[in-house]
Specification:
The complex is a heterodimer of chains A (234) and B (235). In chain A, helix 5 (100-136) packs across helix 6. Chain A starts with a helix and ends with a helix. Chain A has one domain (2-12, 19-226): MetI-like fold. With 234 residues, chain A is mostly helical. Chain A contains ten helices and no strands. Chain B is of the alpha/beta class and 235 residues long. Chain B has a domain at 6-81 and 154-230: P-loop containing nucleotide triphosphate hydrolases (Rossmann fold), CATH 3.40.50. Chain B has helices at residues 44-52, 68-72, 89-99, 104-117, 133-145, 163-178, 190-196, 214-219, 224-230, and strands at residues 6-15, 18-28, 33-37, 59-63, 75-78, 151-155, 182-187, 199-204, 207-213. In chain B, strands 5-6-7-3-8-9 form a six-stranded mixed β-sheet, sandwiched between helices. A three-stranded antiparallel β-sheet of chain B has the order 2-1-4, covered by helices on one side. In chain B, strand 8 (199-204) and strand 9 (207-213) form a beta hairpin. The chains are: A mainly alpha (234), B alpha/beta (235). Chains A and B meet through helix 5 and helix 6 of A and helix 3 of B. The complex binds adenosine-5'-triphosphate and magnesium ion. The site of adenosine-5'-triphosphate has 13 residues of chain B, from helix 1.
Chain lengths: 234, 235
């Protein structure tokens, strides 16, 4: 119990005094995950929307694969990206291993299927509503996508936030491809793991609180959004 | 040049191996106000959708005076359950103009005029999804008419509406007709058919049983099924 109280107290001071290391690590976490999720959304949202309104032979199989990819273990993604980026790997010459870029790549792979899958469901429901109208109005496929993505933007934002939640809380992949290097690739989750193993509970807890605060902010955001949607406002 | 008349020859629609309508052969000239009358499940919706070109036909064909692609641009359809987009009232009404690449400002102005006409002038920026049933139906009608189509298909536009909303919609339909649009309106409301109809098509079991002027039809239909329908024996 003593450890926890001491830890909480120390964490409190680290946060209120804006400890430089804590700030640096938190900002890097945000930078990596926001970049990764922005890219993942740019891929996942249009893909999900396209999947919702397209009819092709392997559609069901594609959706099944997508849903399976959603549960991809981050460690495995990390290993996979590591092999691609390691010096002897196909992209070794780029020298990306143990850089934030490598971490972004891993998180893009982790977040994209989730965002695509949730987007697909949201757009599929909206498409069921709009189908007859959009067909009657002779819309092109492009116009349909635009209408559905625009009118479904709240749900798509929710999908993106879910992707962000998964990315920022993830440790397995970025530990492998980022290496948790001080002042370079250390982020919230990897340093919590490190500080805990070193017995630095104060810093670990402080980092943990920041991570939790971000997670709560995300959930409040999702709630606010789905709440307004239910009342029919936007 | 009008896209009408439209000719249906031996059109059939089948779903899961079951014939829903047909064979239907008929010509619909321009300028009319045709009521499609018939009991539940008769095939009214399917007939309208088939003419509009959004139903997969199993046999026969539907021919307009112009190419199919050209004809599609001059028709509107108001669905039995109005499809309301998750946007403002104004953006809903303006959407067909937006699709056609009309300048934004002019489209908004036209949509605003239409909103005034249907009594939603004060609700331009309101989410259309919160409108009442009658307001939704009027909005769908305004959205259909804003492109000034040659022909409008209306599928039971006043089902579940109260008297005042029904009168508003009937007035809008009358006005559209008087402005030269061809109207095809499915209903099983006999009062509405009498009030609006110039011509009646009676359909039952997917087949057109009778087609005559409204006057002749209501004076005494030749088809036994139609007579029973008018007497309220079948609904
Ligand atoms: N996808 C489908 N699969 C099988 N049967 C269908 C399908 N769609 C419609 N039907 C059947 O076709 C028949 C005609 O339907 P339609 O909706 O055209 O009738 P309607 O005259 O518009 O009826 P209502 O007055 O109830 O609107 C009905 O018996 C209906 O059950
Ligand atoms: Mg119907």
């Amino acid at each position: 119990m003593g450890d926890i109280w001491e830890g909480l107290e120390a964490a409190f001071w680290l946060i209120v005094t804006l400890d430089p290391e804590l700030v640096q690590i938190s900002l890097r976490s945000l930078q990596v995950s926001i970049t990764a999720v922005a890219i993942a959304a740019l891929i996942g949202v249009p893909f999900g929307a396209w999947l919702a309104i397209s009819r092709f032979r392997r559609r069901r199989a594609t959706i099944a694969v997508l849903n399976a990819l959603m549960g991809l273990p981050p460690v495995v993604v990390g290993l996979f990206v590591y092999l691609l980026l390691s010096r002897s790997g196909p992209f070794g010459v780029l020298g990306l291993l143990y850089t934030p870029t490598a971490m972004i790549i891993a998180q893009v792979i982790i977040a994209t299927p989730l965002i695509a899958s949730i987007s697909h469901q949201a757009i599929r429901d909206l498409w069921a509503d709009y189908h007859d109208l959009l067909i009657s109005l002779n819309t092109t496929k492009r116009q349909r996508m635009r209408a559905l993505v625009w009118d479904g933007r709240r749900s798509l934002l929710t999908a993106t936030l879910a992707g962000f939640g998964r990315a920022i809380g993830e440790v397995g992949a970025i530990m492998i491809v980022g290496g948790n290097i001080e002042n370079a690739t250390r982020v919230l989750t990897t340093s919590i793991a490190l500080e805990t193993s070193k017995g630095n509970f104060a810093l670990a807890l402080g980092l943990g609180f920041v991570l939790i605060a971000i997670a709560i902010a995300i959930n409040l955001g999702i709630h606010a959004i789905s709440g307004t949607e239910r009342e029919g406002r936007w | 040049m009008s896209i009408l008349p439209v000719n249906l020859s031996n059109v059939t629609v089948e779903k899961r191996g079951k014939r829903i309508i047909g064979p239907v052969s008929m010509e619909l000239p321009g300028g009319g106000l045709t009521i499609v009358l018939g009991p539940n499940g008769a095939g009214k919706t399917t007939l309208l959708r088939t003419m509009h070109g959004i139903e997969r036909i199993s046999g026969g064909d539907v021919r307009w005076q112009v190419s199919r692609r050209e004809a599609e641009l001059h028709q509107s359809f108001v669905f039995q359950t109005p499809i309301i987009m998750r946007r403002s009232v104004l953006d809903n009404i303006a959407y067909p103009l937006h699709l056609r690449g009309h300048p934004r400002k002019a489209s908004r102005q036209q949509a605003e005029d239409w909103a005034q006409r249907i009594g939603l002038g004060d609700a331009l920026e309101r989410p259309a999804t919160v409108l009442s049933g009658g307001e939704r139906q009027k909005l769908a009608l305004a959205r259909a008419l804003i492109i000034k189509p040659d022909i409008v298909f209306l599928d039971e536009p006043t089902a579940n509406l109260d008297g005042s909303a029904m009168r508003d919609i009937e007035q809008l339909v009358q006005d559209a007709h008087e402005s030269g649009m061809t109207i095809v309106l499915a209903t099983h409301n006999l009062g509405q058919a009498r009030r609006l109809g110039k011509e009646v098509i009676y359909i039952q079991d997917g087949v057109i049983q009778e087609r005559s002027s409204a006057k002749a039809f209501f004076a005494g239909p030749e088809d036994a099924g139609a007579a029973a329908f008018i007497n309220g024996d079948i609904v």
